[in-house]
Structure formats: structure tokens, C-alpha cells
DNA sequence: TTATTTTATGTAACGCGTTAAATAAAACAC
DNA sequence: GTGTTTTATTTAACGCGTTACATAAAATAA
């Protein structure tokens, strides 16, 4: 019974939506209007984040800056993480820019990949609070935001593009043990990310000096990924 | 002036403490008594954690179970993380046990290391909430607890002991590219940890199927760490 | 007009980790 | 006994993310 009623309601709704008959209630704000408000909220969050650091970004303070109440924020974003997602892109852009700079003057794919891995690690170590914003916010229950696809963000980043191209070139040259570009960048990503997350979050372990652990760890990954004979002298 | 006064106060305190004269105020609880209360608090936290999952562990609920107020908890522990640190040891023990079981029947160091790496990853992937308890609690300001040394915890774990012994044996056999046991286990740790943390926390990326990424990632690390010719057929 | 329906926003609350301030308890000095 | 000093514990609060609920606003239906 309930099922039937529900079905009828859904069908009515679909009919109304599809034929664009006059809706009954207050009309929703246009997508354009909504976007304006969303941007005002994001701008407030960014201002707080840049001015006073991540720990000052609270929903209540964002609301004050955006001239609304905290509840209104939840009308436009699922949760705090959802708002901060939009700041990710800017942080990734910084990372990307620093990576682009890091490969300047390096021509062969292997050197470029090595430089990118090194820079990735150093960027996060030098911006530990940015790292926490992105990787250490517990969302517990909520599923990942389907409208924020990190792979697509990364795809638009020049730094990631350079990595992909270097891997592509490497594959052509028979550089790698594997013949699968996606697999290769995922292996590289998990390994460098492991170094970053270990050094930042596992502070109870007495790690080797940063530079030693970083360099030997990266070289280990590259030796494991690159076919014998292709491993040139570094840099 | 202030400095001088401070110095005098310190000296008085030291004198009193060292000569064991009668103290003026209410005497502190004995270390034994304090330990009893600490254990009661930890037991309450553990009960909540095991019965209802991590998200139910709140300072207020621990306090109720331990029959005191939340503030009292802060008399015996610096913060929530400090209490949960004592649960770490038990989770690490589970991990250790599963690792001990995983190497059963594997004799050569390389196979044993490979088994340990694989089991480490699978343990955390199968116990994601445990992973979050340990690695994803933001402590923001506070420095790492100096009285909880993860390396010493790990040292007492048989699973870690087996890893160290396997590395030791490997070094004797000339198995590894590096000749430094600590460096080797730290490289192994960061790499496997990178896989775990990526798969658990970076959900916005469409990762390769677990088994594929795990296996090729581990093999990459081992190829990079093990000298040519020593890399036997797997398992 | 008035009633109804839907959207947008606000009010007040929940439980959270943590802490300042007050108070209770236990010792000594007088 | 009465104060004094130190420790242990509680009370009450802060700001937090989030949400149930109420209300305002804007449209249609009658």
C-alpha cells in the first residue's frame, strides 16, 4: 500500500517536472542565484582560511562573514567538508605550480618523475596545515562527494599532466616494468603519499632525517618501477 | 626581579621535594592509586569502543562509565587522544597476531617480508575504523605524547619482531640494496602505509581494484629494495 | 481574498572536546 | 579548634558541527 502511494507520488512529481507545469510552492532560486550564494560562502571560508589559518574556519564564522546563519550554509552545502572541497582546488593549484617549476630544465622522463615525487613530498611537508585540511578531516558517515572528483581536478592540473606525460613517454621508451599508465601513477601516488602521511601524522615514531628517508624511499620506488639498465645516475 | 622570585620559588620547591619534609597541602594520590583510576578510565573507554564502535567513545560517555565527570578525565589524561593511545596497544596486538599467523610456513626472509606487508595492508583495510582511531585523530596543537612511544610498542610486538629478524637475515644474505635495517623497515612502513591511507582516506580517486594495486605496489617496493638476482618467484 | 504548497532562512537545541572557576578534601601550622 | 596550602573533583561555560523545528516568503488553487 505504502509502496503504491509512494509510486504515485513519484510519478506525479516526474510528470510535473517533465511537463514544466506551474509548480505549487515558492519557486526555488535559479541556479545562477544559488551559485552566487555558494560563491559568497566559499569566499568567506577562503578568507578565514587565508587570514587566520585552518583552525579558525568554523561554520559559525563562515556564516558571519557570509552574512547568514550557520543553518543556511547547510542549505547550500552538505557539510563543512563539502565547503572546504572547493578550497582544495586552490591548494592543488599551488602544488601543481610548484611541481611545474620543479621540472624546469629536466628533459628525460625519469628525472622529471623523480623531481615531481620529491616536490610533491616537500610541498606537503612545508604546508602541513594544508595537508590536514585535505586529508585529515574525518567525515565518518558521509560518502565521498560525488560532485567533487579528485581525479578530474588533478586532470586539469598542469603538474599532474606533466606526470602523466612523463609516464607516457616512459612507457613508449620501455622504461617501466609495467605497461599500464594508470597503474604506474597510482603506485607512485600511494608511495609518495605514504611518506608524507607517515612523517606528518605518525609522530610517535623516530623517523630518519627527512631528506634521507625521502630520497631512499623515492629511489626504492623508482628502482622497483623502472627496468634494469634505464636507471641513470640521479639528477 | 620576577626572574629572581621565580628562581627562589623553584629552589624552595626543590628543597622541599628533596628533603621529603612534610608538605603543606593535601597530599597527592599515590602513584598506585592514580594508576588504578587511570586503568578504570581506560577500561571504560575500551568498553565503549568494543561495544558500540569508535564513534560512541566520547569524553562524556567515558566519564559516565568511569563514574566521574568529564573534567576529572583531564586530571589523569592530557586529552582524548591520550586516553585512546592506550587502546592502540591492543589494536597493534591484533595486527601483530594476524601477522604472526600470516608468515606461518614461510621460511625465506623475502617471502616473510612480502607476507607481512600484505597482511599489514589487509588488516587495516578490514578494520578501517581501527585505522581511523589510530591515524586520523587530529590533535592539532598538542605535541606527540612523549610517554607513548610507538617504536617501543612496536618493539614488543611479535609481528614487528619477525619483520626485523627477516630484515636482519636479509641483510646477512646480502639481499638488500641498503645495508641499514632501520632505514629498510622505515621505507617498507611508509610504502605499505601509503597504500592503506590512500585506499581508506582518498576516496575521491577511482583506485585500481584493491588486490591489483596492493600486489603491484608491494612488488614494486620489493624490487626496488632487493638486489638483482635475489627476487625469487613469489610465494 | 484565503488556503495550500514549496522553498529559504532563522531559532534553539544536541552532544561534542575542552577549560576557567568554584568547591571539596586532606594535610600542616597555629 | 581556626586558618593555610595543596590536591581532587565538580559546575558551568565556550565554541564547535550539525539538525529538528519554526517561521517567513513566494508561488498556485480555490
Brief summary:
Two copies of one chain form a homodimer. The first copy, chain A, is mostly helical.
Structure description:
The structure is a homodimer of 235-residue chains. The longest helix of chain A has 23 residues, at 80-102. Chain A is elongated. Chain A is mostly helical and 235 residues long. The first copy, chain A, starts with a helix and ends in a 10-residue tail after the last helix. In chain A, α6 (109-126) packs antiparallel against α11 (210-225). Chain A has helices at 2-19, 31-52, 59-65, 70-76, 80-102, 109-126, 128-135, 150-156, 158-172, 181-201, 210-225. Mean pLDDT of chain A is 84; it is low at 1-19. In chain A, 69% of the residues lie in helices and 0% in strands. Chain A binds a DNA duplex (30 and 30 nucleotides) through α4.
Question: What tags apply to this protein structure?
Answer:
homodimer; 235 residues; mainly alpha; 11 helices; 69% helix; 0% strand; disordered N terminus; DNA-binding
Q: Topology, please?
A:
Two copies of one chain form a homodimer.
Chain A: H1 2-19, H2 31-52, H3 59-65, H4 70-76, H5 80-102, H6 109-126, H7 128-135, H8 150-156, H9 158-172, H10 181-201, H11 210-225
The structure holds a DNA duplex (30 and 30 nucleotides).
**Radius of gyration of chain A, Cα only, in angstroms?**
23 Å
How many DSSP helices of chain A? 11
Mean pLDDT of chain A: 84
Largest sheet geometry of chain A = none
Most extensive chain contact?
A: A-B, 50 and 49 residues
- How many strand elements of chain A? 0
Structural class of chain A: mainly alpha
Amino acid at each position: 500500500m505504502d509502496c503504491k502511494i509512494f509510486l504515485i507520488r513519484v510519478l506525479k512529481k516526474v510528470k510535473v517536472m517533465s511537463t514544466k507545469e506551474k509548480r505549487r510552492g515558492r519557486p526555488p532560486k535559479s541556479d545562477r542565484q544559488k551559485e552566487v550564494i555558494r560563491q559568497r560562502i566559499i569566499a568567506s571560508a577562503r578568507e578565514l582560511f587565508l587570514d587566520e589559518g585552518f583552525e579558525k574556519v568554523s561554520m559559525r564564522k563562515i556564516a558571519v562573514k557570509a552574512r547568514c546563519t550557520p543553518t543556511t550554509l547547510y542549505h547550500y552545502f552538505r557539510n563543512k567538508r563539502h565547503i572546504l572541497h572547493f578550497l582544495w582546488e586552490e591548494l592543488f593549484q599551488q602544488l601543481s605550480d610548484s611541481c611545474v617549476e620543479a621540472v624546469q630544465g629536466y628533459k628525460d622522463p625519469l628525472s622529471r618523475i623523480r623531481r615531481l615525487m620529491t616536490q610533491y613530498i616537500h610541498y606537503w611537508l612545508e604546508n602541513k596545515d594544508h595537508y590536514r585540511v585535505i586529508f585529515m578531516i574525518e567525515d565518518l558517515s558521509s560518502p565521498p562527494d560525488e560532485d567533487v572528483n579528485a581525479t578530474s581536478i588533478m586532470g586539469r592540473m598542469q603538474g599532474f599532466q606533466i606526470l602523466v606525460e612523463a609516464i607516457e613517454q616512459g612507457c613508449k621508451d620501455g622504461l617501466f616494468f609495467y605497461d599500464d599508465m594508470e597503474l604506474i601513477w597510482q603506485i607512485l601516488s600511494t608511495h609518495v603519499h605514504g611518506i608524507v602521511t607517515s612523517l606528518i601524522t605518525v609522530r610517535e615514531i623516530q623517523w630518519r632525517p627527512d631528506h634521507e628517508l625521502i630520497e631512499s624511499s623515492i629511489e626504492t620506488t623508482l628502482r622497483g618501477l623502472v627496468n634494469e639498465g634505464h636507471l641513470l645516475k640521479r639528477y
